[in-house]
Amino acid sequence: MTVTDALRQHAEQKLSKLPRHFDQIQDAQVVLSVSRNRAVGRAQTAEVTVWCDGLVLRAEELSQDMYTSIDRAVEKLDRQIAKYRDRIIEKRRLDVTRARRRTRRSAEAALRAGPPPKMEPAADEMLAPGIVRTKRFDLKPMTVDEATLQMELLGHAFFVFRNSATHDVNVVYRRRAGDYGLIEPEG
After folding, report:
1. CA dihedral of 38, 41, 42, 46, whole degrees rounded to 10
2. Number of domains making up the chain
3. pTM tops 0.70
């Protein structure tokens, strides 16, 4: 869609208010689109992505009015920032410590149990499903705590990162119980 000066100014004005909670905002991208939607009719979508000191925040909103979509997306980002800055930062320290203990205990138990038995895949399992999407991103070095926060801010179930302590690629993930797990390479 063609972005008018008034629409651009509105988006910039709304985004300029985000640093009141989080002053490490480095860059922002706003993608505006128009499409058909059964529930809304002509859906005007605003997708806002904000890059902060090692974090990525994303919000998407749709409505019948682009100004409303922008307002709602920025409000959603504002709530995310306030929520995670005030509550999750303290909670994640405790959760990561617990996850590290559990990971160590699980690794020790696996070593005691020995390697898992090899099983031959069934004929229908040999065909892997096709890859439908590829994502590429820069692996910035960060601590496990920072990776956990990044995962929570994005709302993902896992997050791949380069561990700043070991310089290895690690994966932090949310477990069914609500706590976190860490996958580290051996050797």
Report:
1. -70
2. 2
3. no
